[in-house]
């Protein structure tokens, strides 16, 4: 059986996902697309030799009898409406982060899914599907080096636009907020945001870098450096200090060159390449699970917890204080 997919939002990641589904993955086909920019959409489909129905309105695509399941890859503020419509239609939906741009919006989706009585929503936190992060999680869950005590992480990107402001936390660090709680099987209880000397190599008025200190329910201290104008590359670091040793996320594989009296490797420069394998595994597992009528990935509840965490981090950024992260008890529906 082939899963007939509709994609809403044919921009950077929408195109990436359509290309991987059409050219690389199995058991799914792109049968419908929707984007407010029709010209861009038609040009892309023609370039990729993909024949798909075009819907001007994402809701019509969701409700189409020719669409089995939906990918939401449009701008963040549009996600809540489309995900709620997919839940109402009883269709599986893969929504790129964020699930919604507010915690309240995420909670609406959680409540709608519980009311529908079936888990239909997966959120695009692809790092859970990265081989390196999965290896880290095994080391922690098997207590190979005892209990984790401290995590030192970094989310660095070469450059960010002047409007990126709070988005370094709400749009980028959401990946750390999700993958670290999944990796530790723990949850956050407080956040502090410290702003060191700012780099001059960024747009006027942008504060960068930030340091975010999270404390977990089990007492683990997490230090995350967010530096989105680091100039040199796209660099994701995760180092875990345990009772009897340390373990780190592996560097992405790269050729090692010895040339002109230098020993060198490359550094990746954008998000598309850094987790390309994780995106493939994430979507193939989602396709397979959806065909089996299951949802095993990051849930709407995970999207809600991340949104709550991001909101508190932004509050801490502006207050300068240590702020409590109050995450409600996880509904049994999501156990
Ligand atoms: N998992 C990851 O690592 C990444 C996730 N993302 C997420 O994916 C989403 C899209 O990001 P990008 O592809 O970078 O943005 P983009 O701006 O390149 O593409 C967004 C597309 O959505 C379309 N769009 C906007 N409103 C629409 C509507 N009402 N109906 C249909 N189409 C609409 C736009 O015309 C545009 O083509 C964002 O939520 C972003 O956070 C983006 C990059 C990486
Ligand atoms: O989700 C992503 C982008 O939307 C975001 O803008 C980047 O900073 C992240 O690294 C990438 O994974």
TrEMBL record:
Example GO BP: inositol catabolic process
Protein name as annotated: Inositol 2-dehydrogenase
Catalytic activity field: myo-inositol + NAD(+) = scyllo-inosose + NADH + H(+)
Gene from which this protein is expressed: iolG
Enzyme Commission code(s) on record: 1.1.1.18
Keywords assigned: NAD, Oxidoreductase
Alphabetized GO MF terms: inositol 2-dehydrogenase (NAD+) activity; nucleotide binding
Subunit structure: Homotetramer.
Domain (Gfo/Idh/MocA-like oxidoreductase C-terminal): residue spans on this chain: 165-320
Limits of the Gfo/Idh/MocA-like oxidoreductase N-terminal domain: 4-125
One Pfam family cited in the UniProt record for this chain: GFO_IDH_MocA_C
């Amino acid at each position: 059986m082939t899963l007939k997919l509709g994609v809403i939002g044919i921009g950077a990641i929408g195109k990436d996902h359509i290309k991987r589904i059409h050219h690389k993955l199995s058991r799914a086909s792109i049968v419908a697309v929707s984007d407010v920019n029709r010209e861009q959409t038609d040009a892309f489909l023609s370039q990729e030799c993909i024949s798909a129905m075009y819907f001007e309105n994402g809701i019509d695509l969701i409700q189409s009898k020719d669409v089995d399941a939906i990918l939401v890859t449009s701008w963040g503020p549009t996600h809540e409406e489309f995900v709620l419509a997919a839940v109402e239609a009883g269709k599986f939906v893969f929504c790129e982060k964020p699930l919604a741009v507010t915690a309240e919006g995420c909670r609406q989706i959680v409540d709608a899914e519980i009311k529908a009585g079936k888990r239909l929503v997966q959120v695009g936190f692809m790092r859970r599907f990265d081989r390196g992060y999965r290896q880290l999680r095994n080391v922690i869950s098997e207590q190979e080096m005892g209990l984790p005590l401290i995590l030192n992480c970094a989310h660095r990107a070469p450059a960010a636009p002047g409007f990126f402001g709070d988005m370094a936390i709400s749009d980028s660090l959401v990946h750390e907020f999700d993958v670290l709680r999944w990796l530790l099987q723990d949850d956050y209880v407080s956040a502090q945001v410290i702003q060191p000397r700012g780099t001059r190599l960024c747009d006027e008025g942008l504060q960068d870098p930030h340091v975010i200190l999270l404390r977990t329910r089990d007492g683990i201290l997490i230090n995350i450096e967010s530096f989105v104008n680091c100039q040199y590359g796209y660099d994701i670091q995760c180092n875990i200090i345990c009772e009897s040793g340390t373990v780190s996320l592996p560097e992405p594989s790269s050729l090692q060159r010895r040339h002109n009296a230098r020993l060198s490797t490359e550094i990746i420069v954008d998000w598309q390449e850094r987790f390309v394998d994780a995106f493939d595994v994430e979507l193939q597992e989602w396709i397979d699970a959806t065909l089996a009528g299951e949802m095993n990935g990051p849930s709407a509840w995970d999207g809600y917890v991340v949104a709550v965490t991001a909101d508190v981090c932004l509050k801490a950024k502006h207050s300068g204080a240590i702020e409590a992260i109050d995450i409600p008890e996880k509904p049994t529906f999501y156990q």
